[in-house]
TrEMBL record:
The keyword Iron does not apply. It comes from Paenarthrobacter nicotinovorans. SUPFAM superfamilies: Dimeric alpha+beta barrel, Winged helix' DNA-binding domain. PROSITE patterns: HTH_ASNC_2. Transmembrane segments: none annotated. PANTHER family: LEUCINE-RESPONSIVE REGULATORY PROTEIN, TRANSCRIPTIONAL REGULATOR AZLB. GO terms for molecular function: DNA binding. Keywords: DNA-binding, Transcription, Transcription regulation. Residues 7-90 form the HTH asnC-type domain. This is DNA-binding Lrp family transcriptional regulator. Gene3D superfamilies: 3.30.70.920, Winged helix-like DNA-binding domain superfamily/Winged helix DNA-binding domain.
Amino acid sequence: MPGSPRDGIDAQILAELRRNARISLAQLGEKVLLSRNAVRQRIERMERDGFIKGYTIRESAAEATRTVNAVLMIQRHDRMRGSDVIAGLRAIPEIATCDVVSGELDLIVRVEAPDAARIQEIWRQVSEFPGVRDITTALSLSTVIDRQSPR
């Protein structure tokens, strides 16, 4: 069984394919800043390596929500000069939202990942950002109100 994608671009490609498996290679290339041919080669390699095991149709909106969600509550070393942390978060495709907040915390980050192992990888990656002082993580057990999902 494969571990994680080879690099951040592979992770971005997988995230985009999860959002829209019918996206064209050209559109996908624009999103990840690669040529259509480079994207095709990466997808073929991920298929060979077992990261992509098949393609399917999902008929229910409930099926699309089968992800692991978590909230990372981040404290930065320097609130005023902590933009490097936000720049690092932007590069992680599973980051759904990032809010700058008042109070003891600095950032509230919502993560949508395919499994808990990926949440742990993201936590490790974020904890290694130079500007991060501390992270508190909460895994979502269930969603009881979701006003942002498409109807």
